[in-house]
Amino acid sequence: MALFPYLPKNMKPNRLLPLVLLLTALSAHAKDFIIYDRMDYVGKPDLTADKLSKVFLVYESELVKPDPTGKRKHGVLNEARIRELAKQSRREGYRTISTDIESWFAEKDGQLLTPDELRTDFARMYQIFREENPRAFISNYGMPSEHLHGIRHYRPNVNNEAILAKWRQVSKRRAPTAAISDYANPVFYITSPDLVQWEKDVKTAVDDIHQRFPNKKIIGYIWPQYYSATNSPYFKQFIDPVRWRKMLEISKKYTDGVIIWSDKRDENNQIVRWNDPRIQATMKATQAFINANAKEIKVEGLQKY
Q: Would you indicate the residue range of the signal peptide (predicted)?
């Protein structure tokens, strides 16, 4: 069969070759991008029809309990509760799971968990989820590295190399746990309107993940509000829709997906309801982004057993 069977007789195939190569390159470059919804604004509806996917997020308070012996200040896994949650995730049809244990990576009452201790405990937690939910695709918030953009915020007068050195230092202990996680789950909350620096920090974190864990999907956390950094002039203010749309575009450029997270409150500690104009502006920008990239937006709904 001819390669170009439907060409007019006077048109030579070699004239189309550059176009074919361009289309092939664009097709190869295109990739699926998934947007998970984990916003907690009051009155939020199910957003699956808007092409936002479902993620099963579990906070530390449900995963960890005090050590009955009192020896381990960070607490121990609450295995009975974890098993209940794992069964719930299967029953409700979830695949992607993000646990949120944060305190284990910091010192507590003079104790610091070793990388091997961290890996062992996370491996046990992941095992329970996988036993009860064979579809589980699981990781933990902040894997495999600390929040670089946040570290930068707290060091305004420190040079870039020193900031990166600090980031690598505090992130190092996460590596063994990241290696057994199904995907990378970094934090990309933004601290100020400076998108240029934010993109640089996202790229730095992503490049590091690609270098150390080249086969892992990257699903980062973003927030429609500025990060709740102490003494920040932008503390929990809503990001304007133009900047938010750009954040989604940058996220798509570097990652495989995002989890859009929020709590319930704004910069004045007031409850935010779903019909608030600020979140509606955010969602309008999100929908415009989805519509502009419709062919590449992957939707992961619930598959109940």
A: 1-30
Rounded to whole angstroms, how far apart are CA atoms 153 and 57?
26
Domain coverage including residue 161: 36-293
Q: Kindly tell me the sign of the dihedral angle through the C-alpha atoms of 193, 194, 195, 201.
A: negative
Residues 34/255, Cβ–Cβ less than 8 Å: no
Domain-embedded: residue 12: no
Tell me whether residue 191 is in a domain.
yes
pLDDT (0 to 100) of residue 9: 52
Q: Which of 191, 254, 255, 184 is nearest to 223 (CA)?
A: 191
Amino acid at the residue 254 = Y
User: Is 299 a domain residue?
Assistant: no
Question: SS3 for 220?
Answer: strand
pLDDT lower than 50: segments of the chain: 1-8, 11, 13, 19-28
DSSP state letters, 52-63 = PEE-EEEEHHHH
Residue 39 confidence (pLDDT)? 99
Per the structure, how many domains does the chain have?
1
**pLDDT of 15:** 55
Look up the CATH number of the domain holding residue 145. Answer: 3.20.20.70
Instruction: Rounding to the nearest 10 degrees, give the CA dihedral for residues 53, 54, 59, 65.
Output: -150
Say if 300 falls within a structural domain. Answer: no
**Token pair for 138:** 């699981």
Q: What angle do CA 25, 30, 32 make, to 5 degrees?
A: 160
pLDDT at 28: 43
